[in-house]
């Protein structure tokens, strides 16, 4: 089993920055994909960014150039540095880990609230 615990959310003014962290523990394979997703009130959860064990990254168009995903494999931790925050970035941010055959084992954290005031 795998546990994911996020931290770093909070309230920030537009244009500000936050750094989210997600620490993983348990039975974690060396080959995995970690990601951040977010869900705004009344909207479906959407992908924000992903990063593979090898460091390949992918971003949603809405956050490109503002957010940076990174990982520390030794600490089993993934980070999301968010700069130039906008009110539309408000939501619950959850981290995700996929591993195993076809990356079919999927785990989620409990989520952390990010609120950006205008």
Gist of the model:
The protein has strands spanning 2-7, 10-13, 18-26, 32-39, 46-52, 57-59, 67-72, 77-82, 91-99, 105-108, 112-117. The protein is mainly β. A hairpin with a 5-residue loop joins strand 9 (91-99) and strand 10.
Average pLDDT figure = 96
Oligomeric state: single chain
SSE sequence, one letter per element: EEEEEEEEEEE
Please estimate the helix content: under 10%
Please describe what this structure looks like.
The protein is mainly beta. The chain is 0% helix and 58% strand. It has strands at 2-7, 10-13, 18-26, 32-39, 46-52, 57-59, 67-72, 77-82, 91-99, 105-108, 112-117. Strands 2, 4, 5, 6, 9, 10 and 11 form a seven-stranded mixed β-sheet that branches. The protein has a four-stranded antiparallel β-sheet with strand order 1-3-8-7, with no helix packed on it. β9 (91-99) and β10 (105-108) form a beta hairpin. The mean pLDDT is 96.
Summarize the topology:
Layout: E1 2-7, E2 10-13, E3 18-26, E4 32-39, E5 46-52, E6 57-59, E7 67-72, E8 77-82, E9 91-99, E10 105-108, E11 112-117
Parallel strand pairs: 2-11
Antiparallel strand pairs: 1-3, 3-8, 4-5, 4-9, 5-6, 7-8, 9-10, 9-11
Based on the model shown, name its key terms.
mainly beta, single chain, 118 residues, 58% strand, four-stranded antiparallel β-sheet, seven-stranded mixed β-sheet, globular
